[in-house]
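Two folds, back to back.
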Amino acid sequence: MTLSVDEAGRALADPKAYADEARLHEALALLRREAPVRWVEPPGYNPFWAVTKHADVMEIERNHEIFLNGPRPLLATAEFDELNRERAEQGIALRTLIHMDDPDHRVIRAIGADWFRPRAMRALEPRVKELAKRYVDRMVEFGGECDFARQVAVHFPLYVILSLLGLPESDFDRMLKLTQELFGGDDDELQRGQTNEEKLQVLLDFFAYFQGLTEERRKHPTDDLASAIANARIDGEPLNDFDTASYYVIIATAGHDTTSATIAGGLQALIEHPEQRKRLADDPGLMPLAVDEMIRWVTPVKEFMRTATRDYDLRGVTIREGDAVLLSYPSANRDEDVFDDPFSFDVGRDPNKHLAFGFGVHYCLGAALARIEVRAFFEELLPRLRSIELAGPAESIATTFVGGLKRLPVRYSLD
Protein backbone atom coordinates (compact mmCIF):
# COMPACT_ATOMS: atom_id res chain seq x y z
CA MET A 1 0.00 0.00 0.00
CA THR A 2 1.37 3.41 -0.97
CA LEU A 3 1.41 6.03 1.77
CA SER A 4 -0.06 9.50 1.34
CA VAL A 5 1.97 12.50 2.51
CA ASP A 6 -0.41 12.97 5.45
CA GLU A 7 0.04 9.34 6.48
CA ALA A 8 3.80 9.70 6.14
CA GLY A 9 3.76 12.71 8.46
CA ARG A 10 1.67 10.92 11.06
CA ALA A 11 4.15 8.01 11.05
CA LEU A 12 6.60 10.30 12.86
CA ALA A 13 4.28 10.24 15.88
CA ASP A 14 3.64 6.49 15.74
CA PRO A 15 5.97 4.48 18.01
CA LYS A 16 5.20 1.29 16.08
CA ALA A 17 6.47 2.89 12.85
CA TYR A 18 9.98 3.01 14.36
CA ALA A 19 9.79 -0.74 14.99
CA ASP A 20 9.14 -1.26 11.25
CA GLU A 21 12.19 0.02 9.36
CA ALA A 22 10.70 -0.47 5.89
CA ARG A 23 7.52 1.45 6.73
CA LEU A 24 9.43 4.23 8.49
CA HIS A 25 11.90 4.82 5.68
CA GLU A 26 9.16 4.69 3.05
CA ALA A 27 7.41 7.49 4.94
CA LEU A 28 10.57 9.54 5.42
CA ALA A 29 11.66 9.21 1.79
CA LEU A 30 8.22 10.41 0.68
CA LEU A 31 8.41 13.45 2.96
CA ARG A 32 11.94 14.33 1.80
CA ARG A 33 10.82 14.09 -1.81
CA GLU A 34 7.41 15.77 -1.71
CA ALA A 35 7.02 17.71 1.56
CA PRO A 36 10.34 18.25 3.36
CA VAL A 37 8.74 20.83 5.69
CA ARG A 38 5.31 19.41 6.49
CA TRP A 39 2.65 20.46 9.00
CA VAL A 40 1.52 17.36 10.91
CA GLU A 41 -1.50 17.00 13.17
CA PRO A 42 -1.32 13.50 14.66
CA PRO A 43 -4.25 12.31 16.81
CA GLY A 44 -3.47 12.76 20.49
CA TYR A 45 -0.48 15.03 19.88
CA ASN A 46 0.01 18.77 19.61
CA PRO A 47 0.81 19.62 15.95
CA PHE A 48 4.31 20.27 14.61
CA TRP A 49 6.33 20.89 11.47
CA ALA A 50 8.17 17.76 10.32
CA VAL A 51 11.65 18.63 9.01
CA THR A 52 13.23 15.72 7.15
CA LYS A 53 16.11 17.08 4.99
CA HIS A 54 19.70 16.99 6.26
CA ALA A 55 20.40 20.63 5.33
CA ASP A 56 17.24 21.84 7.06
CA VAL A 57 17.94 19.93 10.27
CA MET A 58 21.40 21.52 10.32
CA GLU A 59 19.96 24.97 9.63
CA ILE A 60 17.55 24.78 12.53
CA GLU A 61 20.19 23.38 14.91
CA ARG A 62 22.58 26.12 13.81
CA ASN A 63 19.97 28.79 14.63
CA HIS A 64 19.65 27.78 18.27
CA GLU A 65 18.73 31.30 19.36
CA ILE A 66 15.66 31.24 17.09
CA PHE A 67 14.69 27.59 17.61
CA LEU A 68 14.68 26.71 21.30
CA ASN A 69 14.68 23.32 23.01
CA GLY A 70 12.08 24.49 25.51
CA PRO A 71 9.27 24.15 26.26
CA ARG A 72 8.81 21.02 24.11
CA PRO A 73 12.18 19.27 23.61
CA LEU A 74 10.75 15.85 22.72
CA LEU A 75 7.71 14.49 20.96
CA ALA A 76 5.12 13.42 23.53
CA THR A 77 1.35 13.20 23.66
CA ALA A 78 -0.63 16.39 24.22
CA GLU A 79 -1.64 15.06 27.63
CA PHE A 80 1.98 14.44 28.59
CA ASP A 81 3.00 17.88 27.29
CA GLU A 82 0.43 19.44 29.62
CA LEU A 83 1.53 17.33 32.57
CA ASN A 84 5.15 18.31 31.90
CA ARG A 85 4.20 21.97 31.74
CA GLU A 86 2.45 21.75 35.09
CA ARG A 87 5.41 19.98 36.68
CA ALA A 88 7.83 22.53 35.23
CA GLU A 89 5.80 25.33 36.81
CA GLN A 90 6.09 23.48 40.13
CA GLY A 91 9.86 23.11 39.63
CA ILE A 92 9.73 19.31 39.71
CA ALA A 93 10.17 18.42 36.02
CA LEU A 94 13.11 16.64 34.43
CA ARG A 95 15.52 19.35 33.25
CA THR A 96 18.44 17.80 31.40
CA LEU A 97 20.74 19.36 28.80
CA ILE A 98 18.23 18.43 26.10
CA HIS A 99 15.56 20.47 27.89
CA MET A 100 17.76 23.57 28.26
CA ASP A 101 18.70 26.61 26.22
CA ASP A 102 21.46 29.15 26.78
CA PRO A 103 22.59 30.56 29.12
CA ASP A 104 21.60 27.65 31.40
CA HIS A 105 22.61 25.05 28.82
CA ARG A 106 26.12 26.43 28.39
CA VAL A 107 26.77 26.62 32.14
CA ILE A 108 25.29 23.22 33.04
CA ARG A 109 26.94 21.44 30.11
CA ALA A 110 30.35 22.67 31.30
CA ILE A 111 30.00 20.72 34.57
CA GLY A 112 30.58 17.38 32.89
CA ALA A 113 32.46 18.52 29.80
CA ASP A 114 35.97 17.77 31.11
CA TRP A 115 35.01 14.14 31.71
CA PHE A 116 34.35 13.69 27.99
CA ARG A 117 37.34 15.56 26.55
CA PRO A 118 40.00 13.64 24.56
CA ARG A 119 42.43 13.38 27.50
CA ALA A 120 39.76 11.86 29.74
CA MET A 121 38.65 9.51 26.97
CA ARG A 122 42.23 8.27 26.48
CA ALA A 123 42.44 7.54 30.21
CA LEU A 124 39.14 5.63 30.07
CA GLU A 125 39.98 3.61 26.95
CA PRO A 126 41.82 0.73 28.75
CA ARG A 127 38.74 0.16 30.94
CA VAL A 128 36.48 0.20 27.87
CA LYS A 129 38.69 -2.37 26.13
CA GLU A 130 38.74 -4.54 29.24
CA LEU A 131 34.93 -4.50 29.37
CA ALA A 132 34.68 -5.21 25.63
CA LYS A 133 36.81 -8.32 26.13
CA ARG A 134 34.67 -9.36 29.10
CA TYR A 135 31.52 -9.29 27.00
CA VAL A 136 33.00 -11.04 23.99
CA ASP A 137 34.29 -13.70 26.39
CA ARG A 138 30.75 -13.95 27.72
CA MET A 139 29.53 -14.69 24.20
CA VAL A 140 31.89 -17.68 24.24
CA GLU A 141 30.38 -18.77 27.58
CA PHE A 142 26.89 -18.68 26.06
CA GLY A 143 27.96 -21.62 23.89
CA GLY A 144 27.52 -20.22 20.39
CA GLU A 145 23.99 -18.85 20.63
CA CYS A 146 22.47 -15.87 22.45
CA ASP A 147 20.12 -12.94 22.21
CA PHE A 148 22.84 -10.43 21.50
CA ALA A 149 20.67 -7.36 22.14
CA ARG A 150 19.49 -8.50 25.58
CA GLN A 151 22.48 -10.47 26.81
CA VAL A 152 25.42 -8.44 25.51
CA ALA A 153 24.63 -5.11 23.85
CA VAL A 154 22.59 -3.62 26.71
CA HIS A 155 25.16 -4.53 29.35
CA PHE A 156 28.52 -3.47 27.92
CA PRO A 157 27.81 0.28 27.49
CA LEU A 158 25.89 0.30 30.79
CA TYR A 159 28.99 -0.93 32.63
CA VAL A 160 31.13 1.71 30.90
CA ILE A 161 28.93 4.71 31.70
CA LEU A 162 28.04 3.64 35.22
CA SER A 163 31.73 2.96 35.93
CA LEU A 164 32.45 6.52 34.77
CA LEU A 165 29.75 7.82 37.10
CA GLY A 166 31.19 5.72 39.91
CA LEU A 167 28.08 3.69 40.71
CA PRO A 168 28.47 0.29 42.39
CA GLU A 169 27.96 -2.77 40.17
CA SER A 170 25.24 -3.96 42.55
CA ASP A 171 23.05 -1.09 41.26
CA PHE A 172 23.64 -1.69 37.53
CA ASP A 173 20.63 -3.98 37.01
CA ARG A 174 18.38 -1.40 38.66
CA MET A 175 19.70 1.31 36.36
CA LEU A 176 19.17 -0.93 33.33
CA LYS A 177 15.53 -1.55 34.25
CA LEU A 178 14.84 2.15 34.86
CA THR A 179 16.55 3.13 31.59
CA GLN A 180 14.53 0.61 29.59
CA GLU A 181 11.30 1.78 31.24
CA LEU A 182 12.17 5.42 30.51
CA PHE A 183 12.91 4.94 26.80
CA GLY A 184 10.48 2.04 26.38
CA GLY A 185 7.45 3.98 27.58
CA ASP A 186 5.72 3.38 24.23
CA ASP A 187 6.65 -0.30 24.01
CA ASP A 188 4.11 -2.78 25.38
CA GLU A 189 6.87 -5.07 26.57
CA LEU A 190 9.22 -2.56 28.20
CA GLN A 191 6.88 0.09 29.62
CA ARG A 192 6.11 0.08 33.33
CA GLY A 193 2.52 1.10 32.67
CA GLN A 194 0.32 2.86 30.16
CA THR A 195 -0.78 5.93 32.12
CA ASN A 196 1.24 9.13 32.25
CA GLU A 197 1.34 8.86 36.04
CA GLU A 198 2.95 5.40 35.80
CA LYS A 199 5.48 6.68 33.28
CA LEU A 200 6.32 9.68 35.48
CA GLN A 201 6.90 7.32 38.39
CA VAL A 202 9.94 6.01 36.50
CA LEU A 203 11.45 9.50 36.65
CA LEU A 204 10.60 9.82 40.33
CA ASP A 205 12.39 6.51 40.99
CA PHE A 206 15.43 7.86 39.13
CA PHE A 207 15.27 11.05 41.20
CA ALA A 208 15.00 9.15 44.49
CA TYR A 209 18.04 7.02 43.64
CA PHE A 210 20.18 9.94 42.54
CA GLN A 211 19.12 12.13 45.46
CA GLY A 212 20.66 9.53 47.76
CA LEU A 213 23.78 9.44 45.58
CA THR A 214 24.07 13.25 45.72
CA GLU A 215 23.88 13.30 49.51
CA GLU A 216 26.55 10.60 49.74
CA ARG A 217 28.94 12.33 47.29
CA ARG A 218 28.55 15.68 49.04
CA LYS A 219 29.42 14.11 52.39
CA HIS A 220 32.19 11.94 50.96
CA PRO A 221 33.52 13.32 47.63
CA THR A 222 35.22 10.83 45.32
CA ASP A 223 37.11 10.97 42.04
CA ASP A 224 34.22 10.18 39.68
CA LEU A 225 31.70 11.98 37.51
CA ALA A 226 28.91 11.55 40.08
CA SER A 227 30.96 13.49 42.61
CA ALA A 228 31.75 16.22 40.05
CA ILE A 229 28.01 16.68 39.42
CA ALA A 230 27.03 16.52 43.09
CA ASN A 231 29.63 19.10 44.11
CA ALA A 232 29.32 21.47 41.13
CA ARG A 233 28.68 25.14 41.88
CA ILE A 234 26.87 27.70 39.76
CA ASP A 235 27.48 31.26 41.00
CA GLY A 236 28.71 29.73 44.25
CA GLU A 237 25.57 27.64 44.80
CA PRO A 238 25.13 23.89 44.34
CA LEU A 239 22.62 22.66 41.76
CA ASN A 240 19.14 22.11 43.15
CA ASP A 241 17.98 18.53 43.69
CA PHE A 242 16.08 18.25 40.42
CA ASP A 243 18.82 19.74 38.25
CA THR A 244 21.38 17.45 39.90
CA ALA A 245 19.22 14.36 39.43
CA SER A 246 18.44 15.41 35.85
CA TYR A 247 22.16 15.59 35.07
CA TYR A 248 22.68 12.06 36.35
CA VAL A 249 19.67 10.83 34.38
CA ILE A 250 20.91 12.15 31.03
CA ILE A 251 24.41 10.72 31.58
CA ALA A 252 23.20 7.33 32.81
CA THR A 253 20.50 6.87 30.17
CA ALA A 254 21.66 8.66 27.01
CA GLY A 255 25.18 7.38 27.63
CA HIS A 256 23.93 3.84 27.69
CA ASP A 257 20.85 3.18 25.57
CA THR A 258 22.06 4.92 22.44
CA THR A 259 25.36 3.04 22.38
CA SER A 260 23.76 -0.34 23.06
CA ALA A 261 21.38 0.32 20.16
CA THR A 262 24.33 1.09 17.87
CA ILE A 263 26.26 -2.04 18.86
CA ALA A 264 23.27 -4.33 18.36
CA GLY A 265 22.21 -2.63 15.12
CA GLY A 266 25.81 -2.57 13.93
CA LEU A 267 26.16 -6.32 14.42
CA GLN A 268 22.86 -6.92 12.62
CA ALA A 269 24.14 -4.85 9.69
CA LEU A 270 27.38 -6.86 9.55
CA ILE A 271 25.42 -10.13 9.60
CA GLU A 272 23.08 -8.98 6.84
CA HIS A 273 25.96 -7.60 4.75
CA PRO A 274 28.60 -10.37 4.98
CA GLU A 275 30.71 -8.78 2.25
CA GLN A 276 31.06 -5.68 4.44
CA ARG A 277 31.92 -7.82 7.47
CA LYS A 278 34.67 -9.54 5.49
CA ARG A 279 35.91 -6.21 4.15
CA LEU A 280 36.19 -4.84 7.70
CA ALA A 281 37.79 -8.01 9.07
CA ASP A 282 40.36 -7.94 6.24
CA ASP A 283 41.10 -4.23 6.73
CA PRO A 284 40.85 -3.26 10.43
CA GLY A 285 42.02 0.24 9.52
CA LEU A 286 38.46 0.87 8.29
CA MET A 287 37.10 0.55 11.84
CA PRO A 288 36.71 4.31 12.56
CA LEU A 289 34.72 4.73 9.34
CA ALA A 290 32.73 1.57 10.07
CA VAL A 291 31.80 2.85 13.53
CA ASP A 292 30.35 6.05 12.08
CA GLU A 293 28.51 4.05 9.45
CA MET A 294 26.93 1.90 12.18
CA ILE A 295 25.91 5.06 14.03
CA ARG A 296 24.39 6.54 10.84
CA TRP A 297 22.69 3.25 9.97
CA VAL A 298 21.04 2.85 13.38
CA THR A 299 20.52 6.53 14.35
CA PRO A 300 19.43 5.69 17.93
CA VAL A 301 18.00 9.18 18.63
CA LYS A 302 14.99 9.50 16.38
CA GLU A 303 13.99 13.10 16.95
CA PHE A 304 14.30 16.28 18.95
CA MET A 305 11.79 19.11 18.96
CA ARG A 306 12.40 22.84 18.72
CA THR A 307 10.08 25.84 19.16
CA ALA A 308 10.34 28.94 16.96
CA THR A 309 10.77 32.28 18.77
CA ARG A 310 9.86 34.23 15.63
CA ASP A 311 8.53 33.66 12.14
CA TYR A 312 11.07 31.83 9.99
CA ASP A 313 11.03 30.85 6.30
CA LEU A 314 12.31 27.38 5.41
CA ARG A 315 12.04 26.06 1.84
CA GLY A 316 9.31 28.58 1.07
CA VAL A 317 7.26 27.58 4.13
CA THR A 318 6.71 30.04 6.97
CA ILE A 319 7.17 28.53 10.41
CA ARG A 320 5.27 30.84 12.76
CA GLU A 321 6.44 32.12 16.14
CA GLY A 322 5.47 29.50 18.74
CA ASP A 323 5.26 26.63 16.24
CA ALA A 324 6.96 23.36 17.16
CA VAL A 325 9.39 21.69 14.77
CA LEU A 326 10.37 18.00 14.76
CA LEU A 327 13.90 17.25 13.55
CA SER A 328 13.96 13.75 12.05
CA TYR A 329 17.47 12.30 12.37
CA PRO A 330 16.78 8.94 10.66
CA SER A 331 15.54 10.92 7.68
CA ALA A 332 18.50 13.32 7.63
CA ASN A 333 20.85 10.33 7.76
CA ARG A 334 19.28 8.77 4.65
CA ASP A 335 19.10 12.01 2.67
CA GLU A 336 19.88 11.26 -0.97
CA ASP A 337 21.29 14.79 -1.44
CA VAL A 338 24.03 14.13 1.13
CA PHE A 339 24.81 10.40 1.09
CA ASP A 340 25.74 8.36 -1.97
CA ASP A 341 23.47 5.32 -2.03
CA PRO A 342 22.16 6.07 1.50
CA PHE A 343 20.35 2.73 1.86
CA SER A 344 23.60 0.80 1.42
CA PHE A 345 25.61 -0.16 4.49
CA ASP A 346 29.21 0.79 3.64
CA VAL A 347 31.94 0.27 6.26
CA GLY A 348 34.25 2.51 4.25
CA ARG A 349 31.80 5.39 3.78
CA ASP A 350 33.81 8.60 3.56
CA PRO A 351 32.73 11.32 3.94
CA ASN A 352 29.95 10.46 6.36
CA LYS A 353 28.25 13.65 7.51
CA HIS A 354 25.62 11.95 9.64
CA LEU A 355 23.68 13.91 12.24
CA ALA A 356 23.15 11.11 14.75
CA PHE A 357 24.92 13.18 17.43
CA GLY A 358 23.07 16.36 16.54
CA PHE A 359 24.79 19.54 15.41
CA GLY A 360 25.86 22.88 16.88
CA VAL A 361 25.71 23.82 20.56
CA HIS A 362 23.63 20.75 21.41
CA TYR A 363 26.07 18.30 19.81
CA CYS A 364 26.16 15.14 21.94
CA LEU A 365 28.49 15.49 24.93
CA GLY A 366 29.33 11.78 24.87
CA ALA A 367 29.97 11.35 21.13
CA ALA A 368 33.66 10.51 21.56
CA LEU A 369 32.88 7.95 24.28
CA ALA A 370 30.22 6.30 22.12
CA ARG A 371 32.71 5.93 19.25
CA ILE A 372 35.36 4.47 21.58
CA GLU A 373 32.90 1.90 22.95
CA VAL A 374 31.60 0.76 19.57
CA ARG A 375 35.13 0.58 18.16
CA ALA A 376 36.49 -1.33 21.19
CA PHE A 377 33.72 -3.89 21.02
CA PHE A 378 34.06 -4.69 17.32
CA GLU A 379 37.86 -4.62 17.45
CA GLU A 380 37.59 -7.35 20.09
CA LEU A 381 34.82 -9.32 18.37
CA LEU A 382 35.74 -9.42 14.69
CA PRO A 383 39.22 -11.02 14.92
CA ARG A 384 37.69 -13.83 17.03
CA LEU A 385 34.56 -14.31 14.93
CA ARG A 386 34.66 -17.34 12.64
CA SER A 387 30.99 -17.34 11.66
CA ILE A 388 27.71 -15.68 12.65
CA GLU A 389 24.10 -15.75 11.48
CA LEU A 390 20.67 -14.75 12.69
CA ALA A 391 19.01 -17.42 14.83
CA GLY A 392 15.55 -15.85 14.63
CA PRO A 393 13.82 -12.58 13.78
CA ALA A 394 15.25 -9.32 15.08
CA GLU A 395 12.76 -7.06 16.90
CA SER A 396 12.93 -3.30 17.41
CA ILE A 397 11.62 -1.16 20.25
CA ALA A 398 8.44 0.84 19.65
CA THR A 399 9.46 4.42 20.37
CA THR A 400 9.43 7.96 19.01
CA PHE A 401 12.58 9.08 20.83
CA VAL A 402 15.48 6.69 21.54
CA GLY A 403 15.67 3.06 20.55
CA GLY A 404 16.94 0.20 18.49
CA LEU A 405 16.82 -3.56 18.68
CA LYS A 406 15.32 -5.23 21.73
CA ARG A 407 16.02 -8.73 20.38
CA LEU A 408 18.78 -10.01 18.12
CA PRO A 409 19.04 -13.82 18.34
CA VAL A 410 22.34 -14.96 16.83
CA ARG A 411 24.22 -18.22 16.28
CA TYR A 412 28.00 -17.96 15.99
CA SER A 413 31.41 -19.54 16.33
CA LEU A 414 34.10 -17.66 18.25
CA ASP A 415 37.77 -18.25 19.04
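---
second:
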Amino acid sequence: MLALELPPDIEARLIELSRRTGRSKSFYAGQAIIGHLDDLEDIYLAEKRLEEFRREESDTVPLAELLARHGLDK
Protein backbone atom coordinates (compact mmCIF):
# COMPACT_ATOMS: atom_id res chain seq x y z
CA MET A 1 0.00 0.00 0.00
CA LEU A 2 1.31 3.40 -0.98
CA ALA A 3 -0.32 6.76 -0.32
CA LEU A 4 0.73 9.78 -2.34
CA GLU A 5 -0.10 13.43 -1.99
CA LEU A 6 0.08 14.99 -5.45
CA PRO A 7 0.09 18.66 -6.35
CA PRO A 8 -3.48 19.78 -7.18
CA ASP A 9 -2.77 20.29 -10.90
CA ILE A 10 -1.32 16.77 -11.24
CA GLU A 11 -4.21 15.30 -9.28
CA ALA A 12 -6.68 17.07 -11.60
CA ARG A 13 -4.91 15.72 -14.69
CA LEU A 14 -4.94 12.21 -13.24
CA ILE A 15 -8.64 12.46 -12.38
CA GLU A 16 -9.47 13.68 -15.90
CA LEU A 17 -7.43 10.92 -17.54
CA SER A 18 -9.13 8.33 -15.36
CA ARG A 19 -12.54 9.74 -16.18
CA ARG A 20 -11.89 9.77 -19.94
CA THR A 21 -10.47 6.26 -20.08
CA GLY A 22 -12.39 4.41 -17.40
CA ARG A 23 -9.17 3.32 -15.72
CA SER A 24 -8.39 4.01 -12.09
CA LYS A 25 -6.02 6.67 -10.82
CA SER A 26 -4.08 3.84 -9.19
CA PHE A 27 -3.59 2.17 -12.55
CA TYR A 28 -1.97 5.26 -14.05
CA ALA A 29 0.08 6.02 -10.95
CA GLY A 30 1.36 2.45 -11.01
CA GLN A 31 2.25 2.68 -14.70
CA ALA A 32 4.16 5.91 -14.11
CA ILE A 33 6.08 4.46 -11.18
CA ILE A 34 6.97 1.28 -13.06
CA GLY A 35 8.26 3.25 -16.04
CA HIS A 36 10.29 5.57 -13.87
CA LEU A 37 11.74 2.71 -11.82
CA ASP A 38 12.90 1.03 -15.03
CA ASP A 39 14.70 4.24 -16.01
CA LEU A 40 16.27 4.66 -12.57
CA GLU A 41 17.49 1.06 -12.56
CA ASP A 42 19.02 1.54 -16.03
CA ILE A 43 20.79 4.71 -14.89
CA TYR A 44 22.11 2.97 -11.75
CA LEU A 45 23.47 0.07 -13.79
CA ALA A 46 25.10 2.39 -16.34
CA GLU A 47 26.77 4.42 -13.58
CA LYS A 48 28.00 1.23 -11.90
CA ARG A 49 29.45 -0.09 -15.17
CA LEU A 50 31.13 3.27 -15.87
CA GLU A 51 32.80 3.24 -12.46
CA GLU A 52 33.99 -0.35 -13.04
CA PHE A 53 35.39 0.72 -16.41
CA ARG A 54 37.18 3.69 -14.86
CA ARG A 55 38.72 1.40 -12.23
CA GLU A 56 39.72 -0.95 -15.06
CA GLU A 57 37.60 -3.72 -13.56
CA SER A 58 35.70 -4.52 -16.75
CA ASP A 59 36.46 -5.48 -20.31
CA THR A 60 35.56 -3.50 -23.38
CA VAL A 61 34.64 -4.62 -26.88
CA PRO A 62 35.45 -2.57 -29.98
CA LEU A 63 32.29 -1.27 -31.66
CA ALA A 64 33.08 -3.01 -34.96
CA GLU A 65 33.37 -6.35 -33.16
CA LEU A 66 30.12 -5.79 -31.30
CA LEU A 67 28.27 -4.91 -34.48
CA ALA A 68 29.67 -7.96 -36.27
CA ARG A 69 28.78 -10.22 -33.35
CA HIS A 70 25.15 -9.17 -33.62
CA GLY A 71 24.98 -9.09 -37.40
CA LEU A 72 24.72 -5.32 -37.61
CA ASP A 73 27.92 -4.69 -39.53
CA LYS A 74 26.35 -4.74 -42.96
